[in-house]
Amino acid sequence: MMKLAQEGLLSDLAIRYRDRLTRFGFHYLQTFFESHQVTLHILDGQTDEKSVQEELVEDLIAIITSFSGKLYGIRSQKNKIVEEKVKGVLEDVANLPNEANEHSTT
């Protein structure tokens, strides 16, 4: 979209909700598009203006949510690797000859 705006191929951009365009930093994108004569249309019908503090809090929450998701994803991947290795070790142990049975039969 940004490349289309830079090339002058985009004049209007309609989005349902602001956070569908970006989770935080909406005003940066809005300024970018306006500087390339692209009109943003937000269709969510939200007419109440938020204070700067409210917007900053929402941006901070969006950032924390994003990083938390990434951290949980990393942890999940590590847990899967550990689980696979443990299963491999358990299978190896299960395939070892039973020493108790060997001693009693000799």
Automatic annotation (TrEMBL):
Residues 1-79 form the Resolvase/invertase-type recombinase catalytic domain. It comes from the Bacteria. Transmembrane segments: none annotated. SUPFAM superfamilies: Resolvase-like. Pfam families: Resolvase. This is Recombinase family protein.
